[in-house]
Amino acid sequence: MTLVDSHCHLNFKPLHASLDTVLANARHNGVGYMLCVSVTLETFPEIRAIAGRHPHIFASVGVHPNEREGQEPTADELIALAHDDRVVAIGETGLDYFRSKDEVAGDMRWQQERFRNHIRAARAVRKPLIIHTREAAADTIRLMREENAHEAGGVMHCFTESWDVATQALDLGFYISISGIVTFRNAEALRDVAKKVPKDRLLVETDSPYLAPVPHRGKANEPAFVRHVAECVAELRGVSFEALADQTTQNFFNLFQAAGRS
Question: Model pTM?
């Protein structure tokens, strides 16, 4: 039995400062693989270095929709970086109108153009997208359709939207990833989604160091805690923890085909 944390940020300070301990904790909890996800081009070398040192850790390349300070990625730049053999995905990318709601006149065209560039890069290199969406579901799905994101495929990470949005993403060939939010008291709608996602399109993640699941709320999250996410989702779906772990691990490698099992 092996788990995969399909989305974490091991280069962030709460984790990177004690990375050896974090990785040991993950191993102790059956987490055999992790995908360390990029949020800026400036910090991508840190992620690439981690993945280079650890065969069971994979990397993505991309710029988070809310990042404004660093380099704006072109599709060509993303394509060039994505040819690295440790890079298995493009992202995280997408739209987040919640964190950018104070933008002048609500003009989100800059986010939308960035998202389009990521989709184009993913299609060019044939590596899947890691999509973040918050208070922007309609535009997210619209741009995915307009840019033919189904040709790259990918995952709706840390999913918190409705079942209707999940269905639209599934229809485009995307996977749905469930985070520790599913364990929160007020997450009944998400628990309903977690029950309904087809078993071959389901992933689990931590988004660490954020969103620590029950019973670790209030602490820094870490990949070891994906076990609590998997246990919760298994209970919701009426399957064994081992079956859920095996299925989501197989799903991860089905989606991220550039990732090799060591």
Answer: 0.96
CB neighbours of 220 closer than 8 A, spacing ≥ 6? 14, 15, 208, 209, 212
State how far the Cα of 94 lies from the Cα of 156, in Å rounded to an integer. 9
Contact 174, 131 (CB under 8 A): yes
Which is nearest to 28 in space by CA: 222, 262, 231, 247? 222
Q: How far is the C-alpha of 78 from the C-alpha of 152, rounded, in Å?
A: 14
Q: Which CATH number fits domain 3-255: 3.40.50.11290, 3.20.20.140, 3.40.50.300, 3.20.20.70?
A: 3.20.20.140
Q: How many CB atoms lie within 10 A of CB 144?
A: 24
Residue ranges of domains in the chain: 3-255
Give the model confidence (pLDDT) of 181-234 as tens digits. 999 999 999 999 999 999 999 999 999 999 999 999 999 999 999 999 999 999
Report residue 148: phi and psi, to 5°.
55, 45
